[in-house]
């Protein structure tokens, strides 16, 4: 905002970590040397603790910038109360390795095999875990197992744990006695001292081309230290406000009086009392340090936590908490979509975002080159979706190469667009990968469809859902049950918002779109019989990654389809990817002679027409279960691990797995008694997108209003 006035090329006091701004203070230099020593010591743990805002993340990024990518493979994980399985999942994703769809017990062997391959290729592996004090104890045990030593089957696995002071206390406790033996280096990052405060500020200014305007006098530097206790993030916060004050006042000098006045104003805006805070609380008020104090290494400084003062909209009856990260001042909102369900929900959301004044433009980021956009294109009508559309072009079938490429390509997109926020849906593996990229780059993450849980035997699927949730700054759930799941896992209630289901909004849009049911379908003539069968028809929707790509699972599911078709005609709109899979496994003709009518993938309004007129639907898709509940159509959840939730307890879904006897009985129940239809859950009213847009307009800072930048959260680190 003030850059052009002072002739600088960018904001010098941004709060997000940036290794280009690394300042080689005495304490930072010492810790950086310890980090280098830890890597040279061999496999094991390096533990770095420090106050919030001391610069741990910036320091580690400066270290990573020194490492040769040809010699090092690096995975960076931000710990958000991860257990062992979730940490393994996040670590694999960080290395660009696709976790298996099998049980969670397969994750550790998958990681070990990857690390051994690295070792054979002459490369070393490094895992960086930020906010490590939040890890579950079993996650530490898992890391210890992987880093325990050298053998022909055990790689050189280096682990750097970054955390707040409680991390150091954890390692000093009796519970961590065995882990302490694996710690090669342990040190604490303290604040910069009084003499280095001025050079630190000038260093950051020179990085953006500062030529002396505005000027700081020596007394100003002294006063800034007194109000911030030498914590780099606090210095950045205060100096950013000082620069803004000079811009608004048309003055070019920052003196002691200016610092005192600005610091007091900032303290008042943050809602702090005049009296110094109780050091036992987790609150920070900007205040002068005691006379003669030297906030050098090891000085006690209370952990900061600053709450925003943004009004919450009435549409969402929840409290507002500062995001984990501070939204960028410029850039679009990125809506990441993988499958059809993501595209449909993104369309509903983007209509509401476009209708809301003051929000940045939203861009659709398509992960795969699949049929999802063609099928849902009518829902984007009026949004000019092709303008600014971002196609990542990642192969749809999951593989290590594909997910590694997704991570690299999305990093490029984020670096160039600097989005205000990244929006992901339903906790899929692509969603968790993109959320991880955004989190590592200090871009806020909004997760819509949070709180979905499957049994942990589902392996990477279960870990993916939880990982996406714990990475997000804002979590929108579709029902109260999902909100309770998140709260039970320790996610702050202020970050959880029950907004309803975007599919209800999408269905409203789809009902206004023209339908071309069964037009231009090669099998349309043969399929017309199902429309007049007195029992109706069953709709089959299949495509979960746990099944597609696995010949045995597909053969089992095809046998189920044949069984059902003996009682009820089956209509199967089949995506092109699934057709290729069946053909590749030479099972594409296995339903010949049965009453199974395969159609090409339908446009979304046509698909809804098929669903709305079906006797029942068989699916492995969470999205289809929700659509069936909205339309009151009995839904049979098939597959190895059908997902359960409110659609089973309240809606129309009945999980039947692969038990053919149970499936047959459930189909008969649908034919003769109408099946389970349930009820539409609360807040699935077609107004979810408007509620989310209303909240985001209050949460995201306005480019035109400097005061809205006060919503600062101090849990990110900058130095």
What brief labels describe this structure?
719 residues; alpha/beta; Rossmann fold; 7-stranded parallel beta sheet; 6-stranded parallel beta sheet; 27 helices; 20 strands; disordered C terminus
Q: Your description of this structure?
A:
Helix 14 links the parallel strand 9 (362-368) and strand 10 (390-394). Helices cover 41% and strands 14% of the residues. Among the domains are: 41-189, Rossmann fold (3-Layer(aba) Sandwich); 333-501 and 688-706, Rossmann fold (3-Layer(aba) Sandwich); 524-673, Glycogen Phosphorylase B (Rossmann fold). It is α/β, with parallel strands linked by helices. Helix 4 runs parallel beside helix 5 (107-120), helix 15 (400-417) packs across helix 16 and helix 21 runs parallel beside helix 26. The chain is built from 27 helices and 20 strands. Residues 273-328, 518-527 and 702-719 have low confidence and may be disordered. It has a seven-stranded parallel β-sheet, sandwiched between helices. A six-stranded parallel β-sheet has the order 17-16-15-18-19-20, with helices on both faces. The longest helix has 18 residues, at 232-249.
